Amino acid sequence: MRPAAARRRTEAARLLRDAERRTAPVEPLSVTWPAPDVADACAVRQDDIARRPASGASVIGHTAGLATAPMGELPGVGRPHFGHLLDDTVHRDGGTVRAARYRAPRVEPEICFRLARPLRGPDATLSDVLAATDAVAPALEIIDSRVHDRRITATDTVADDAGSAGPICGSFTPVAHAPDLAAVHVDLLVDGNRVATGGGQTPAHPAGAVARLANALAAHGEGLGPGHVILTGAMTTASCIGVDQKAEARFGALGSVSVSFI
Q: Does domain 3-261 have CATH number 3.40.50.620?
């Protein structure tokens, strides 16, 4: 990479980190960096993630951003991609989260996979995923864009690590005893009121999102390791959440998960 491009990448990553720390959005990369492409955005994201261990954070898994229809339909950001899950962003099921930590948080229900064995692409299949999986759980993901939403593009979302801001996982069920994951239905509730519903109407299996993730990571020389958790994509549209509100996702036989914002 040319020195000027490397400096631009480092500066963009710094701006995104500062935006997260200050909960103040920055201009989209597509505005401040003329003609960026997805490779540029991936370089910004990797620069950011590579610097996280210096502040004590570790990557514990990934989120399959925009992997499912409800989120893939969002204008301008319909290209599937992935984000990273960091151990300092994990929240406890049934616990509380400080709303001031985020700029404009939203929540979305997802199914979480926990691996027992390594999984690498580029030819990972659904069967490979199930063979490598230890257990699955109901989950919520907090989403919080670090860039201004106006004029946002896929490039901006990739650079912003898919807007991932932290997972909340419910109780894990051994994969051999889990219900049919392709048929799982979910209701998303805020303060007890159902705000979205999804799943249960498609033959697509969430393990397919994990396989696509493993294959995408292979292009970056990465893989998934034992203990990694993977959020497989939103099953409904994301719902805004604020102070003194509680979000809950009910996944039928798979269980429920909740978090309250204070």
A: no
